[in-house]
What we know:
Elements: E1 5-8, E2 17-23, H1 27-35, E3 45-50, E4 57-66, E5 77-83, H2 86-98, E6 102-103, H3 108-115, H4 121-132, H5 136-146, H6 149-173, H7 183-203, H8 206-212, E7 214-220, H9 226-235, E8 244-245, E9 252-258, E10 261-267, H10 277-292, E11 295-301, E12 322-326, H11 333-346, E13 349-352, H12 361-375, H13 386-403, H14 409-427, H15 433-441
Helix pairs in contact: 4-5, 6-7, 6-14, 7-13, 13-14
Bound molecules: guanosine-5'-diphosphate.
Guanosine-5'-diphosphate (GDP) binds next to helix 9.
Amino acid sequence: MRDTIFALATAPGRAAVAVVRVSGPDSRRALKALAGTASSPRYASLRTLRDPSSGERLDQALTLWFPGPESFTGEDQVELQLHGGRAVVDATLQALSHLGLRPADAGEFTRRAFENGKLDLLEAEGVADLIDAETQGQRRQALDQLTGALRGREVHWRGLLVQALGLLEASIDFPDEDVPGGVVDQARSTLTALQAELGAALVDDRGERVRDGFRVAILGRPNAGKSSLLNALARRDAAIVTPLAGTTRDIIEVALDIAGYRVTLGDTAGLRESCDAIEAEGMRRGKAWAKAAALRFFVVDASQEEAEPMLETADLLQAGDVVILNKMDQAKATVVKACQGEAATGGFEVVEASASLNAIDQVEALLKRVVVARLVGSEAPTVTRLRHREALGTALQQLERALAGGRPAELMAEDVRLISRSLARLSGRVGAEDVLDEVFASFCIGK
Ligand code: GDP
């Protein structure tokens, strides 16, 4: 018999309504002890809740009774919709505790739903991501995951593996008779198709960029106007958090909502030769951050007296990155021209700005265009977390081994079973307890 657990499911603090959830075999007994009678399944009933030990009235609340298995967790469940005052919630939680129920751990309701087959691990992660979603892009992606977009793909891939395994086993069991020629070749071509699909899923980084934020690094020499640009972009209504110091004192991160996607701007330490050990470390971290970013803005001071090779410090830049000609209000034509030439050679787009005057329309338009082009797609991405990337990466390696020249059918069949296990880790049908612990620990209490 499992424990019966309870938790406040809504955010703590004063509110109009607070929801307390109870799940486990004692749910119905607890409801009767508090409310006098249990309500009809899945109907809301208005009840006076009383402390079972003293008989004192605690609240007038809406009560809901969900008999298992037709509940979120798959167990008997009760939901109490209380008046959302701190004292009401405290008294109700205490009464449940006195009835012998146990406060839930973080993610325990969802974990029970997973263990009872109500959700797979991908869908459970979708629940967590939906709760954490701050932008519409994150919300859409989490909802796709919650409603089985990724699971559908896993099912399709496992179907291909079953097909390949059937062919391989036929060739093993009936080496000479009854089997049409070329079955191993057919298995190979099925596996090759799978290889292409897994490869494409791994190349697609939209899922992680949407979930974790589309990172844009702001690079450039000291005084080019990097901080001014960050401030100008963040001052707009788009900012969803105030500027906060990043992991190091030298990277300032600001999260923006651009076209419904979370964009994290990172202002890095100015790039220049330095003998100072702390500044050098700041630059090292800034470079690492910039390298992992989805896009880099290289800010150039267009007001300098002389044109100098402006991009020489920009060994981090990749094709598709952007040069921002800043201080255009005091621009020197020669500098602008030289910089445009360099940018064209490197394959970088150029936009103009006067950051300290908040004249950054071109930068904003470009950012929006790039974010939409890079993140919006007709199909939901498969990989939204490192966990998925690792499972698919392992499957792909095993697949490459299976397809290596001269591999006998027996060994290929064994490879296919291993690939199947690797893919099953995605939905958590196969997996170590510690993976489950890690996934569910990231949930909040009451979920
Ligand atoms: P950072 O070291 O690259 O972060 O550069 P800052 O943003 O601190 O700017 C350095 C100096 O340039 C400051 O005095 C800013 O006011 C000035 N500045 C920044 N952007 C502009 C601009 O568009 N026009 C002008 N005239 N000055 C600017």
